[in-house]
Design a protein that fits this description.
It is a single chain. The chain is an alpha+beta fold and 66 residues long. It has one domain: Arc Repressor Mutant, subunit A (Orthogonal Bundle). Helix content is 55%, strand content 12%. It contains three helices and two strands; from the N terminus they run αααββ. The protein has a two-stranded antiparallel ribbon. α1 crosses α3. The longest helix has 16 residues. The protein starts with a helix and ends with a strand. The model has no long low-confidence stretch (mean pLDDT 92).
Length: 66
């Protein structure tokens, strides 16, 4: 995967989380044609960029903390 594709997927992933549509990394494996491990790495990369991405165990969803 090249840098442009990866950065586009990060942007999409952040938007997906922001809208409350991501409950597990598995949800995106088919869309991105990758493994759960890759999606988890992408979430961690977004966190390293400073995005406050959390996981709620009650709602079973990722969300962006403001």
């Amino acid at each position: 995967m090249d840098y442009h594709t990866y950065s586009q997927r990060l942007k999409y992933l952040l938007e997906f989380i922001g809208k409350g549509r991501l409950s597990s990394p598995y949800d995106l494996t088919e869309k991105f044609e990758c493994t759960e491990k890759t999606v988890r790495k992408m979430i961690n990369d977004l966190r390293k960029e400073g995005h406050q991405i959390k996981y709620c165990r009650k709602r079973f969803k990722y969300f962006v903390e403001n």
